[in-house]
Specification:
By secondary structure, the chain is α/β, with parallel strands linked by helices. The strands form 4 sheets. A 3-stranded mixed β-sheet has the order 1-2-3. Strands 6-7-8 form a 3-stranded parallel β-sheet, with helices on one face. A two-stranded antiparallel sheet has the order 4-5. Helix 4 links the parallel strand 7 and strand 8. The protein starts with a strand and ends with a helix.
């Protein structure tokens, strides 16, 4: 991935993991870091634990895919190069004027590839703050025709349908929270309405 190699090592070879790391670093010229993946991808943020075996202890790298470039953090934000063909497939299906919601956006790869050549709007959402910040950087570093929006939106389930096969279809809406200024104004209005009702009742 970029200039990083991530390896999974069977338990029988764990005692030689440093030798494996140094060998890979010396043999693959573009590589700057070799990591051992010590846990599965897990948790709400979809992250994994990595152990440095050789080279620089830096989990950020630049990754290029289908004329797009992305800064990824292979430990602290979800990323999988194995999804490259699926990302290309979705991007080709996207049409001008469409609105899409990427509910588990990670660093924004699906979103940016879809908006790269089509004048679409993509709402790019992720719980992981590291992934969200990388998505911002990746939006700026790629020239996109469409529009990728990522801040302040929440998914709201509206209707749910089940079929005989056990599959679920969910209609969703996008909600945007109020800004602090709007919240203050709403609170003032609410307080005034309470006071007004109290005054009218006393009179």
């Amino acid at each position: 991935i970029g200039n990083i190699i991530i390896v999974r090592i069977p338990e029988s070879l764990l005692s030689k993991k440093k030798i494996i790391g140094e060998t890979l670093l010396n043999q693959v010229k573009i590589v700057k870091s070799v990591f051992y993946q010590s846990s599965a991808v897990e948790g709400d943020f979809r992250t994994r634990n990595l152990e440095i075996l050789a080279g620089e202890d830096n989990t950020e790298t630049e990754y290029k895919e289908f004329n797009c470039k992305f800064i990824v953090d292979v430990e602290n934000a979800f990323f999988s190069p194995r999804l490259s063909t699926e990302r290309e497939r979705i991007a080709k299906l996207t049409q001008d004027g469409e609105v899409m919601v990427n509910m588990f956006a990670g660093v924004g790869m699906f979103s940016i590839m879809a908006a790269k050549k089509k004048k679409c709007t993509v709402y790019s959402l992720d719980l992981n703050p590291t992934a969200s910040k990388l998505c911002e950087r990746n939006i700026l570093s790629n020239k996109i025709l469409g529009n990728v929006k990522k801040d302040g939106f929440s998914i709201i389930p509206i209707q749910m349908y089940f079929n005989d096969s056990g599959l679920v279809k969910l209609n969703i809406g996008l909600g945007k929270g109020k800004k602090k200024f709007d919240k203050r104004e709403s609170q003032k209005l609410k307080d005034w309405n309470k006071n007004k009702q109290r005054l009218l009742k006393n009179n």
